[in-house]
Design brief:
Layout: H1 2-11, E1 16-17, H2 18-23, H3 50-60, H4 84-97, E2 99-100, H5 106-118, E3 131-134, E4 138-143, E5 148-154, E6 162-177, E7 183-198, E8 208-209, E9 215-221, H6 224-230, E10 234-254, E11 262-282, E12 288-293, H7 301-310, E13 316-317
Length: 322
């Protein structure tokens, strides 16, 4: 009886599939809150449902794989820029392959890296190319007194990052039970948050900077009638190049409990960039209202080689590690 009570207490808050619970009644019950150090360094994502995979494919279609033309006076209607998920995934794959194995010479390894870095990241955009990333959270406020539109871009608290997209990937559900026999439907879903981390905010002069440093703003002239129509379609486009360390990621895992019946990995994925320009535009019509350029001179020839190497995948020789 004491053994039964201890088992119920250990499993009273965790939720497991009924089928698994029935099969493991004689086995030790996992604790409700595994220690953080027991979790793997990188969580394995769950397999998306067929519907979720279809949704991801449809979502990707709204983006373009073409490099932005900075001389444009107007963008195509419904322009979303380049796909942050596709960019991140492509770079992540390259980084995973940038390891020298014990069966290839150093020369072979270097040639493979050179070939890899010469290939485009997406479309025809190579690692040193320009990427166009649309910010996802933008506020706009019009001043009738000055006939100016004010557009505000919010920055994250982690790395002063700019949010790009948020994706929920469904991975099915099951009926779960706790140690007291209570049942509920548990949903499986992974969450991916993509954001850009600019390294050169100080290269720009913003008309507005929040005192906390977590918001920047720009303003431009716009007549009241046009402002009223365009207000809800205001978007910010980040024109940028990649910079070291290219990408980074923070992950956390949520295990289902009765009060929060869902399992999933939450991934914050960052694309590290060096801003070239910031555009304010109307996503519905493609009209560009303002282009904010850097206040400093372009990169000097002395630093070109250094910056170029920062945008390339740098390999590691695993054969020398023990």
């Amino acid at each position: 009886m004491k053994k039964l009570i201890s088992v119920l207490a250990a499993c009273s808050v965790c939720l497991i599939p009924i089928t698994s619970f029935a099969e493991t009644t004689d086995q030790p019950v996992p604790s409700a809150a595994p220690k953080a150090e027991m979790k793997p360094a990188k969580y394995k994502m769950m397999k998306p449902t067929a519907a979720a995979q279809k949704k991801l494919r449809e979502e990707a279609k709204k983006y373009t794989s073409a490099q932005i033309d900075t001389s444009l006076k107007k963008l195509p209607p419904k322009y979303f820029g380049n796909d942050p998920r596709a960019i991140y995934t492509a770079i992540e794959k390259r980084l995973e392959q940038a390891e020298k194995n014990e069966f290839e010479t150093t020369e072979q390894f270097q040639k493979r890296l050179e070939k890899q870095n010469s290939n485009p990241i997406i479309g025809k955009i190579k690692s040193e190319g320009l990427f166009a990333l649309q910010a996802s959270y933008v506020d706009s406020k019009y001043s009738a007194d000055t006939s100016e539109m004010n557009v505000y871009l919010h920055l994250g608290y982690s790395q002063r990052e700019i949010s790009l997209s948020s994706i929920k990937i469904d991975a099915g559900s099951y009926e779960g039970t706790n140690g007291f026999g209570a049942r509920t439907i548990v949903k499986n879903a992974d969450h991916e948050e993509y954001a850009a981390v600019p390294s050169n905010y100080t290269d720009f002069e913003f008309p507005y900077i929040e005192t906390t440093g977590q918001s920047i703003g720009v303003k431009f002239a716009l007549n009241p009638n046009e402002a009223k129509i365009a207000k809800n379609d205001m978007r910010v486009l980040l024109i940028a190049k990649l910079t070291a360390p290219l990408i980074s990621e923070n992950q956390r895992y949520h295990s289902a409990t009765f009060s929060s019946p869902y399992n999933g990995v939450f991934s914050d994925r960052y694309i590290h960039i060096n801003l070239s320009e910031i555009w304010i535009y109307n996503q519905k019509t493609g009209q560009i209202y303002s282009k904010i350029a850097r206040k400093v001179d372009p990169i000097s020839s002395e630093t070109t080689e250094k910056v170029s190497s920062e945008r390339s995948i740098q390999g590691t020789d695993k054969s020398k590690e023990r």
